[in-house]
Amino acid sequence: MAEESSRAADVLIIGGGIIGCSIALRLKQEGLSVIVLDRGEPGAEASSAAAGMLAPQGEMIEPRMFSDLCVTSRSLYPQFAAEIEMLSGQHVAYRNDGSLLVALDEEQETELTEVYRQQTARGFPLQRLTAAEVHRHVAGLSPQIRSGLFIAGDHWVDSERLMRALLVACRHEGVRIEAGQPVRRFKAKNDRIESLEAGSDTASHTATYTAKTYILAAGCWTGELATLLGINLPLVPCRGQMMEFETPRELPWVVRTGRHYLVPRPEQRVLVGTTAEYVGYDKAVTGEGLRSVLQGAMNLAPLVAGLRLRRAWAGLRPDSTDHLPILGYGRFENLVFSTGHFRNGILLAPVTAEIIAELVLKGSTSRSMEAYGPTRFSRPAGEPPPLHRTR
In this structure, are strands 235-246 and 205-216 parallel, antiparallel, or unpaired? Predict the structure, then answer.
């Protein structure tokens, strides 16, 4: 028979990735006791697999309110990265050098023109570059490049280093982080979660956890956990495959075209990606996936063909049916959702932590949350969201 124990905290966060740990850090700093549970190794899933681009201007993000949210979170990053480095004593390789979008054909040139039009209309500075100017700034790119767009405001960070440092920072502040603790069942009464049981089916030890507030931040596994509570959350994993190479010299900027990109990393490394595959929870690195990534990278920068491969991997992004995050209270008055960040989990970590901390501490947030609420998937078209009960 499995041994049982009980543990309690003000807040219990399910999911030890960048979203869950960023929230944990903020709530702990507000004086709450916080436990983070992770089904495996904290930070080892999508958070560490991500390329780390902080690039809301490099895409025509819709709708506008979501674009604004992404830009806001990017503005929080300098302070966020500096804080994590200070608390952890580790360098996270946050870079604000800018990003370069390039066009290889007429269609991509049209897309760059539209990005330029939209972003400059909002007051963001962007610089158009000729093909010759692109090559002067970044050596080794394709001779097929027709033009470029330099976006000084789009930055990047080493997501692996950031995640490791964030875990250290959380523990430094007193957050309790427990690995290998998948949630097995919830105990709920009326409209409140009373407790949950966690532990492997094969483990000799299970634990019961109680909290005033529960936060579901388990990435693409959040949907499975929600079903334990009778909640249908339309969340699916989207696999992205990546490769990393050694480079003879450091790439000065992120370089992108379409879904293909090159992202600099310290120690003369470069990441190339990616794919967008809906294949369930399969994290396999496949021949077809790597072929697609490699071909796209070589079309963008032929120099990749001669680089030494270091490794390849895949991560599972949590994607909702409308591709927007799922944030806020739903059916249960002490259960908060924070998931569905899709390709923007690293970017949105600071602002998500701010939003969820406000919800937990005050029962409401200064930002409009209607578009992100978990109940939006069950409402008939045109029906307004219910008012949240401030507790």
Answer: unpaired
